[in-house]
Amino acid sequence: MGMALADKRISIVGAGPGGLTCARILQRHGIPVTVYDREADAESRNQGGSLDLHDDDGQIALREAGLLEEFLALARFEGQEMRQMDSAGRILAHHIPAADEAAAPEIDRGQLRELLLDSLEPGTVRWGHRLESVSAPEGDVRTLTFTNGSRTEADLVVGADGASSRVRSAVSSATPEYTGVSFLEAWFDDMETAHPELAALVGKGSAHAADGVRGLFAQRNSGNHMRVYIMQKVQADWIGANGLSGADAPGIRTHLLREFAAWSPEMLRMIADNDGAYVDRPLMALPVPHTWEHSPSIALLGDAAHLMPPLGVGVNLAMLDASELARAIVQAGTVDDAVRSYESTMIPRSTEIAQMLEHGAEQLLAAGAQLGDPDEAQVAAADAA
Fold first, then answer.
1. Where does residue 197 rank: exposed (0-12), middle (13-18), buried (19+ CB within 10 A)?
2. Nearest residue to 189 via CA among 226, 217, 222
3. pTM metric for this prediction
4. Could you tell me what percent of the chain has a pLDDT over 90?
């Protein structure tokens, strides 16, 4: 067990939480692996907001990676607080976590990535490698070609490259489709000093309100920061359709204040008081079910395999996928056996969850709807290697 595949060339595409978790577990068992990522280095892009890692999936993966205690030392347990509000800012439901509650503590996505990167052997991640294509198999070998002109051969290519996965295209013609709901991300800095009213309104964790056609989700991050996701049922190119551009923050703000005119002034601070630009994030999802013809040299995990509406499952599922794939590789006698074993669990699980969440994007706008952390699934779209 384990060393049977130690001489195989395993290439993981995508240095997000899923890809890095898989690499970490493989290295713990003495199996060499290389991770390729399109970013210039680990610091080249803001990694997004806060994640809640669940004790029945994300934390299981971290335990397998030998990093659970380090995660718990970094996690914000107070971030499990959730407030459900109406458009006037009245609290309809309020979850205050118990002192020992650890079901889903929060951690910034950047902190999680740093934890995983620091656990890997030096040189594991090859930065500046944007994948251009994966060749058809020659026997059981694939050739990866990168836009920087380099190539490499692999006995197993792991697609951990997010919503716009190029690895996926080697086995599936499916592409993500717009769900009809769009998020607009707004950032807030120095909360306690610059935005004390919002800090009091949102609390230490997250707050959600919706009126049936639009909504707001506020999420406290570490370092006294906050992100707000302005949610609307609109056409995908709604900014341009209204004569605006993504860089026109004042114009977008004026438009949004008209759309949310019935909301209270306190709630409108989440739209109007942001620091800097807005970030457009139309919600995409893969068809349900998403299946593909088995290949002994390709394995997909996370959003590359099952992009879903952002209802608090994205990163957790990606890390659970990564853990199960790595364990399958450790235990199998051949690469084909490993991929088959992994897919026999991952595909039915992801199909069942995707069917439950198939129309979940619209549920985000339902008054009184319960919501997970929206940043989990959709920020991964930016992680394509």
1. exposed
2. 226
3. 0.92
4. 82
Name the DSSP letter for residue 207. E
The b/e string for 129-140 (b: 16+ C-beta within 10 A; e otherwise) is: bbbebbeeeeee
- Identify the H or E element spanning 342: helix 335-356
Q: At 364, which amino acid appears?
A: L
Put residue 149 in one of left, alpha, beta given phi > 0 → left and psi -120 to 50 → alpha: left
pLDDT band at 378 (very low <50, low <70, confident <90, very high): very low
- Give the N- to C-terminal CA distance of the chain in Å, as an integer: 30
With CA atoms as reference, report the closest residue to 291 among 327, 356, 360, 344: 344
Q: Where are the domains of the chain?
A: 3-79+104-175+285-383, 177-284
- Contact in structure between 47 and 195 (CB atoms under 8 Å): no
CATH superfamily name and code, 3-79+104-175+285-383: FAD/NAD(P)-binding domain (3.50.50.60)
Q: pLDDT tens across 153-179, in order?
A: 999 999 999 999 999 999 999 999 999
d(CA 161, CA 14): 4
Whether the predicted pLDDT of 323 surpasses 50: yes
Q: What is the pLDDT of residue 377?
A: 38
| CA R_g for the chain | 21
Q: Which amino acid belongs to residue 300?
A: L
Which of 322, 286, 310 lies closest to 379, judged by CA?
A: 310
C-beta of residue 66 within 8 angstroms of C-beta of residue 28 = yes
How many residues are given for the chain? 385
pLDDT in tens, 289-305: 999 999 999 999 999 99
Tens of pLDDT along 38-55?
999 888 776 677 888 999
Amino acid at 15: A
Report the pLDDT averaged over residues 347-351: 96
